[in-house]
TrEMBL record:
SUPFAM superfamilies: P-loop containing nucleoside triphosphate hydrolases. InterPro entries: P-loop_NTPase. This is Nuclease SbcCD subunit C. Heterodimer of SbcC and SbcD. The keyword Metal-binding does not apply. Belongs to the SMC family. SbcC subfamily. Keywords: Exonuclease, Hydrolase, Nuclease. One of its GO terms (molecular function) is exonuclease activity. It comes from the Bacteria.
Length: 346
């Protein structure tokens, strides 16, 4: 019996190790998902800062809004034409200045014309020319900055889309392992598979002892959302009513039969998973006093089938009716000098 328990504990430890490994992997994937989410938030902040910086630059440049600045982009193709106009104007200024020098040399001592008015006109023309040059340089610099910012924004947008797609996959895996939507996480999924095998082995005996009335099954309902995890609750299917109900609604005798079936089913599954280890001896303590005569017969027949399969079954009970049904008994008697025991054979 101890060897079987140790083998069962070893298998249980293996299952726990597998569950821990799965939880670590899930935690790792969750951390990666959080890192991706953090990067997305950082990129969003950078994008917002870039948009705000662009708006500040546009306002500092004298535009009423970004929309008004974009409207000025239509004039960017005219820059070469304006530059040509400026060069042509510069050439004309030089020609005029040369002509003025020739005229001044020619007139010599002649009466001077209104030079102040002419110079004022020349100064105005030079200022206008300088303003055009400065406007051209400003527009060229802004255009280059806008192009760079446009490319940076496009790269950030593409990176954000890639991060979003990556998070969808990681997030879906995490949701599945954590069981947030189904109520069954990875650990409960593994334990549920083992419990199904135990229930299948237990039902073979419970149906016989209950005269084909009861069978055990896992509850899959999640009606009470206050319960965060499901998948390991046991319910009883009643063939007489056609409905399943909680196991705690069974009577005392029915509960004993269900517990006995589960114990035998667990022993079969442990033996199947333990390879060459066999559970040759089994002891059952009490519980028979809650059974009626017919149900007691079915329970004893089930235990007798175990004995015919090579197992030794020991029953510990105070029920007098069992004495007539058990061939070999170890009776314990109380005396004023203590307890004594003796073997009795029918």
């Amino acid at each position: 019996m101890n060897r079987a328990i140790r083998a069962y504990e070893k298998d249980l430890q293996h299952c726990r190790d597998a569950v821990v490994a799965g939880e670590r992997q899930a935690a790792k994937q969750q951390q990666e998902a959080q890192n991706w989410q953090h990067q997305v938030e950082v990129l969003r902040d950078r994008f917002s800062q870039g948009v705000q910086a662009l708006r500040d630059r546009v306002l500092a440049a004298g535009f009423e809004s970004v929309k008004a600045c974009r409207a000025m982009q239509a004039a960017v193709p005219q820059i070469p034409e304006l530059e040509e106009s400026v060069r042509h104007y510069d050439q004309q200024v030089q020609q005029v200045q040369g002509q003025l020098a020739q005229e001044e040399a020619a007139i010599g001592t002649q009466e001077r014309p209104d030079v102040a008015a002419a110079r004022a006109a020349l100064d105005g023309a030079e200022k206008a020319s300088q303003a055009l040059v400065e406007a051209k340089g400003s527009l060229t610099a802004r255009y280059q900055r806008w192009q760079q910012e446009k490319e940076a924004l496009a790269a950030l947008q593409q990176e954000g889309q890639n991060l979003t797609e990556a998070y969808k996959t990681v997030g879906a895996v995490y949701e599945l392992i954590a069981g947030k939507q189904t109520g069954i996480n990875f650990e409960r999924y593994v334990l549920g598979a083992l419990l199904d095998e135990v229930l299948a082995a237990a039902n073979g005996r419970l149906q016989g002892m209950s005269r084909q009335r009861y069978s055990l099954q896992r509850s899959q309902s999640w009606d009470d959302k206050r319960v965060k995890q499901i998948g390991l609750d046991i319910e009883v299917y009643d063939n007489y009513t056609g409905y399943a109900r909680p196991a705690n609604t069974l009577s005392g005798g029915e509960t004993f039969l269900a517990s006995l079936s589960l114990a035998l089913g667990l022993a079969d599954v442990v033996q199947a998973y333990s390879g060459g280890i066999h559970l040759d001896t089994m002891f059952i303590d009490e519980g028979f006093g809650t059974l009626d005569g017919e149900t007691l017969d079915y329970a004893l027949k089930t235990l007798a089938s175990l004995r015919s399969g090579g197992r030794l079954v020991g029953i510990i009970s105070h029920v007098p009716e069992l004495k007539e049904r058990i061939d070999a008994r170890l009776a314990v008697h109380k005396t004023d000098r203590g307890s004594t025991s003796s073997f009795e054979f029918a």
